[in-house]
Input
Amino acid sequence: DAKTTQPPSMDCAEGRAANLPCNHSTISGNEYVYWYRQIHSQGPQYIIHGLKNNETNEMASLIITEDRKSSTLILPHATLRDTAVYYCIVTSKGGTSYGKLTFGQGTILTVHP
Amino acid sequence: ETGVTQTPRHLVMGMTNKKSLKCEQHLGHNAMYWYKQSAKKPLELMFVYSLEERVENNSVPSRFSPECPNSSHLFLHLHTLQPEDSALYLCASSQDFGVETQYFGPGTRLLVL
Output
C-alpha cells in the first residue's frame, strides 16, 4: 500500500470548514483513498472514499488532485462533535493488502467554539 | 451506531485468567475483524474472518484465540495474557472480505494486571 502523510494536528473554529490534507505521492492506479475518523474512546467511523473523482456524501467531501498524489477531506461546517482523529488510508483491491485497512497516526482535529 | 456491538466494554483480568470478548454485528455482513489499539500506537489488524472462515492471522500470539461460530458473532478468547496486552480491542465488519468500508464497534478496554 502507498504510504500516507498527514499533519499531526489541526484546529478549526466551529461553523467553519475543516480542510484536512493527506499526501499519498506513491499511490498506484488501483488504489483507493479512504477516510475514517475516531472520536475519543470510540471505534473508528467510515467517512468517505474515492478513486480519482471527487466525492461527496452527507458527512464530507473528498477532493483528489488530478495526479492523485494528494487529497483533502472537507467537513463543510465543523461542529464540536467533529473533534476526532482523522485517518487517511490508501488501499488497493488486490495483492497482499487485499481487504486490509492500515491505520497510521492520523490528524487530531480540534474544533473550537 | 449500534450495528456492531461489543461486550464487555471494560475488562480487568489477571495474567492467569481466561476471559472472552464478544462481538455481534446486526448488519448482515459476511466479514468480521479484530483490531488492537495500544496507547499511542496505530490500530493493528489481528484477525479476519470471511463467511466464518479465518482468512488472516496477522502474526498474533497464541494466547489470543478467535472464534467465529456464525457470520454475526465473533469472539476473542484470552488466556495467560501479559500486561503489554492491555489495549482497546475493536471489532469491525464489512459486507464482504475485500470491502474496505468497515463498521466498527465501540471496543473493549482491556487492562491486564
